Each structure stands twice: as structure tokens, then as C-alpha cells.
Amino acid sequence: MLEVKGLTKRFGANIAVDKMSFTVDRPLMIGIIGRSGAGKSTFLRMMNRLTDASEGALNFEGRNVLGLSGKEKRDWQSTCAMIFQQFNLVPRMDVVSNVLHGTLGRRSTLATMFNLYPEEDIHKAIDILDRLGIADHAPKRAEALSGGQQQRVAIARALMQDPKVILADEPIASLDPMNAQTVMEALRRIHDEDGRMVIANLHTLDTARRYCDRIIGMRDGRMVFDGTPAQLTTGVARDIYGAGADFSEAATSTEIRDHEALEQAEMRAAEVVI
Length: 274
Ligand SMILES: Nc1ncnc2c1ncn2[C@@H]1O[C@H](COP(=O)(O)OP(=O)(O)OP(=O)(O)O)[C@@H](O)[C@H]1O
What we know:
Elements lengths: L1 E10 L2 E11 L4 E5 L6 H8 L7 E6 L2 E2 L5 H10 E5 L10 H6 L8 H5 L5 H13 L15 H13 L5 E5 L7 H18 L2 E5 L3 H7 L2 E6 L2 E6 L6 H8 L11 H21 L1
Parallel strand pairs: 3-8, 3-9, 6-7, 7-8
Antiparallel strand pairs: 1-2, 1-4, 4-5, 9-10
Helix pairs in contact: 6-7
The protein binds adenosine-5'-triphosphate.
Protein name: Phosphonate transport system ATP-binding protein
Organism: Celeribacter neptunius
Keywords: ATP-binding, Cell inner membrane, Cell membrane, Membrane, Nucleotide-binding, Translocase, Transport
């Protein structure tokens, strides 16, 4: 149902994504891992058509996604809803209105200006919030909710579009472990119960292992791993992150960055001694 072939993005001389190719034949929950700058966000943005690809092809259910323009492109962006690390809600607006914003694409300018929502959309929004366990917060301002609750509002807003695919760009990177778990469980449930494909860029290896059916590893723009959580051995993870022999199973890209910073500081200190 999804075919990515030779997908490439260049920013000047920098190749952010380099000939990425893979196919997915049924709606899976896919995790993309890799250190900062590996090209994970750029891939999601190309898939959602927020960024134009430099080369390659991306077909979904036989549709040439990269060739879409105008209304067809906007329709695709609804079919393939995106959620972000920073939730991107309107903080001072109430939760249910934030969720109803997910229907903006199919409402008239006048209805949008006067915040006129069809009753069935309001019921649908409340039902989705209920499903995500946050219907009680519907009248509150979004900014009054915890990070995990705000991310669930963002998921609810995405679900208003009834998407076939949910693209999640580091959905739990700003959350504490408890909230992160609630959000990942919500994404997994949406996948399991609705059969929607979920592609999530993830910061931590153990999250990808726990929630995803398939994991794609990226390094310097290239896909260096594509397999199941069981195939993602410590050695493979070490290659993806370009880490040293002391790499541990539970390591995350943040830990690796910290580790590298520590190593560099130690090297600088050693040079001073010499
Ligand atoms: N708009 C842009 N202009 C120029 N270079 C960019 C742009 N967006 C991304 N890049 C570069 O493309 C490369 C891949 O970035 P990308 O954000 O896709 O990585 P990432 O794996 O998502 O990293 P992170 O986890 O830090 O978000 C990086 O070298 C980045 O600097």
C-alpha cells in the first residue's frame, strides 16, 4: 500500500535523505529511529508534502503522492495526518475547538470565521476525546492540560480527518515517561482498532521496540536498517547510532549525544594537559 523508491532530499550540498526505499503491504505501526539529523523529520515532511522531494517516488495505494497539487494535495494531507513534538494546538482555545480545527479543510471560510461547526462534528469530536480518555477536559483551554493530554488532543484533531496514515514526528520527546506511555498506547490502539498506519519518529530505542511492528533505522540520510524489533540487535543499534562498544540496549539518541559531548570534553581536556 506504501511504496517509497529512491526518495531523496537535498538542501544545497547537504543530502538530508539519500535514496530511501521501502515498501509496506499492510497498515503497520512503523518506528523510525536514528540520531539527530539522520533525516527522520525530512522523510515525514516529504511524505506529508510539507517539503518537496528532490528525487524519487512515493506511492500510496497506487497514487503518485509526489505528483499531487492543489486540492488533491490538500486531500492527501488530510489522509496522512501529522502530529508534532510541540502539539501545535491553539493554547488559549478550548480543547473541543482545537479538535474541530481538524475539519478546517472541508469547511467554508464563513463557517470558519464564525466558528460554526455542524452538530455531528461536535459529537464526533467529543466521541474521539472520550475514546482517548480526555472528554472531561473538552471545555478547558488547551494550555491548562498536561503535555500528554495536549498530545492526545492533537491526536484527536488528526482523527477528525479520518486519516489512513498518522505521521508522528517525535510525539513523546517533550513528555515525561508516564505521559509518553499514555500517548504511545493511544497511537498503538488507534492502529490496532482502526487499522490506520502509524509512522512515528522516535527518540528512544525501547519505545520503538515496545510499540512498533517494524523499525527503520536511519543514519546520515540513509536507511541502514529495516526489520522487526527482534532483528534490532544491540550491534545493529550501535551501527544506526554510530556509537561505541559501550553502547547499551536502553541507550537513546539523547544519551548518545551526551556521551559524545562528554568524550569531546575529555579529549579537549587531554589536549590541554599535553
Ligand atoms: N529546511 C532545512 N534547510 C536546510 N537543511 C535542513 C532543513 N531541514 C533539515 N535540514 C538538514 O537535513 C538533515 C536532516 O534533518 P532532519 O531534521 O530530517 O533530521 P532528524 O533525524 O529528524 O533529526 P532530529 O531528531 O534532530 O529532528 C540535517 O542535516 C538538517 O540540518
